[in-house]
Task: structure prediction
Amino acid sequence: MFKAFTLCFSICLAAFTQKAADKKEEKKVDEDLIITSQHLDYDHANHQAIFSLNVKAINGETTLTSDKMTCYFNKDNDPYLIIAEGNVIITRGDHIATCNKSTYKINEKEIILRSQPKLFDGNNTIKGRIITFYEDKRITLVADSDVILKAKLSDKKETEQKKDPKKN
Result:
């Protein structure tokens, strides 16, 4: 179960930003976040960009799609909040997270999935009312959780073999 939380955490986190740091060398590696959509409105007065119609954000190996994405910027034009709404799907490899609204608080490194959030890791599924990821603490909280863990057929065979090696 911890593996499912860790992998799903990685999916959602990387959907918005993917950073690796080697503290010994004080070296940072950033990947570009590429957002495409059929429509973009930039509100200069309120410092926000609204992407709509077939929104697709790619960051490294992670892809996020949604109906709408709003990016909020501070006075220095640095993003501090990203909200994706409508049919949100976050994929990284075989791992998938879905919901109808996700919020990424960049400075707090907190991701919140709302409105029917689900995490899929192979045969395992995690559902909840709200799923919150804390990047720095590597903690996932699921409110009103419903977890379905299914062992792979090969895992079941290995377990049976360990219990009774004479079955081979």
